[in-house]
Amino acid sequence: MADNIRVAPSTKLSMHYLRKMSAYVRTRDGCFPVLSWSMWRHIACGKLQLPEDLAWLYFETFDLLTDHSAVTRLEWAEGLSQCSSKSELDQQRNKLSVDTLKFLLFLYIQQLNRVSLRASLIGEGWPNRTRSPSPSDREAKTSMQNKNWDDQAHLVFVQSHLAEILELLVGPAQLSKSGQTSRDCQIPLEVVRSLDLLLEGSTNHNRTNVQPIHRLLSEDPLQSQAGYSALSCCFNLHKLLSCVQHVLTLNPFGMSACLRSGKKLAWDQQAEGPMKRAKIARNTHTAPHGSKIILMSQVMKQTLAKTSEKLIGSNVKLHRCSGAFIYLLSPLRSVTVDKCQDCTVVLGAVETSVHLHRCQNVQVVCVTARIIVSASSSCTVHALTPTRPLLLPGNAEITLAPFHTFYPSLEDHMASVGLAVIPNAWDQPLLLGSEGLMGPDPPCYRLLPPAEFHMLVVPFKMEGDTCEVPGGLPEQYQAALDEKERRIQKWQKTVMEAKLNKEQRLQFKELVEVKFHKWLLETGHRRELDSLIPPPTNVVNHCETGRAADAEHSRTGEVTMAS
């Protein structure tokens, strides 16, 4: 699982209430083994007194992280786009259901604000020897103060709370009046499948053939260690607990391992100038689906551009970048922008979420299933998203704006991850705090005024058919662009009618260029344009995995995209 809601939940989702929910869902129609939206709304709003918007947020987020096909997601988006009233929206939502026990575990995970647990834990027989941290381990730890990427914290959490996790899976008939489990308590194999949400692994020390945890437990040697009975098709709870705790180890495809032994990316100019501090690594050559990671840390005052099959389906982390312009124009699984400042990040279609965390003066441009912003200031998000942007605590001066760019293969990339042009909820944020939904006062965000709106041009030549912003622009923003175009035409007409002589035209041209270059310097666009010019041939490293801003600057200003 690549993502999660990243704020402490309501106290109504504590273990006490989840135990009650675990018992309740097994006795009601429409609740078990799958939970419908209507029944979850009844439980969340009627029993737990949660706001409906918050109840839907949990339900929708869990569904977003479920492996649906792109076609299924596009069909769901089409259904939502045809809803014109609250009652029609309710009818559409009532068609959605989720795995009940996995959803219970998902809610439990929220208690400690843990994220990416499935992507950060492997339950299997790899060695788990205690050792002193190496320099690369310390580097990884320093780079991952964000708990969402802290593999060690995830491991400790599951080891410490596995007993409660298994308890949620036990039927109420096997619990005492005090809610305790007995020594001979049994868990059916079908129920153990729910642990696939959190754990996967392999019995192969070469870390190949990664499988869900229930499959590993269904075969020896783990089957006998976990107390499995072929007669009853059940596991003994306490033997299962002991077995899983014993074989848990750090994720060999996690962020720590990627920093320690991942394949480094050799971008152009890395050996000199501001790129010498950058750390860019990936595990995409070895990691299974869902666990592919690309890390880009401390990229300073550079333009990096990449479109490649190696990016497809990756979880990308941009960490402590400053003054950088980063273009990642391939279908991605998730993106986290952490502790970056003064950067522009332009992304391809992102399947699950884009998360800005502790950023300052960062502009992100993306098409994604979910936008999350936390503890950030003076950031702008240009998004096309079917869900309401999630604004978590600690934000200030966040600007939300419509998606305002395109590149030739964008619509193909969107279709490949199941993202449509409607519905588009970029301007309907949901403010979530530790006590639930928050009001707009004091405001931490604004919608970009149409008068400040400009298009973004992706300066790379690529193959594809997309030639305009998918879905078009909101009416008021298109009107603002049209007005600017009219002013340009009026200006050009005024210049032509002035009938300047050759010397006057030259003087006028020089004045305009001076003003233009001054504007480029003041806005920082001069550095962005300069960084698109490729370095001299003798310093170019044509490493296939590391072409950054690998461009040819023509007289028209077009640039060829690295691949």
UniProtKB/TrEMBL annotation:
<dbReference type="InterPro" id="IPR017901">
    <property type="entry name" value="C-CAP_CF_C-like"/>
</dbReference>
<protein>
    <recommendedName>
        <fullName>TBCC domain-containing protein 1</fullName>
    </recommendedName>
</protein>
<dbReference type="Pfam" id="PF07986">
    <property type="entry name" value="TBCC"/>
</dbReference>
<dbReference type="InterPro" id="IPR036223">
    <property type="entry name" value="CAP_C_sf"/>
</dbReference>
<keyword id="KW-0963">Cytoplasm</keyword>
<keyword id="KW-0206">Cytoskeleton</keyword>
<dbReference type="GO" id="GO:0051661">
    <property type="term" value="P:maintenance of centrosome location"/>
</dbReference>
<dbReference type="GO" id="GO:0031616">
    <property type="term" value="C:spindle pole centrosome"/>
</dbReference>
<dbReference type="InterPro" id="IPR039589">
    <property type="entry name" value="TBCC1"/>
</dbReference>
<dbReference type="InterPro" id="IPR012945">
    <property type="entry name" value="Tubulin-bd_cofactor_C_dom"/>
</dbReference>
<dbReference type="GO" id="GO:0051684">
    <property type="term" value="P:maintenance of Golgi location"/>
</dbReference>
<feature type="domain" description="C-CAP/cofactor C-like">
    <location>
        <begin position="274"/>
        <end position="434"/>
    </location>
</feature>
<dbReference type="InterPro" id="IPR016098">
    <property type="entry name" value="CAP/MinC_C"/>
</dbReference>
<comment type="similarity">
    <text>Belongs to the TBCC family.</text>
</comment>
<dbReference type="InterPro" id="IPR006599">
    <property type="entry name" value="CARP_motif"/>
</dbReference>
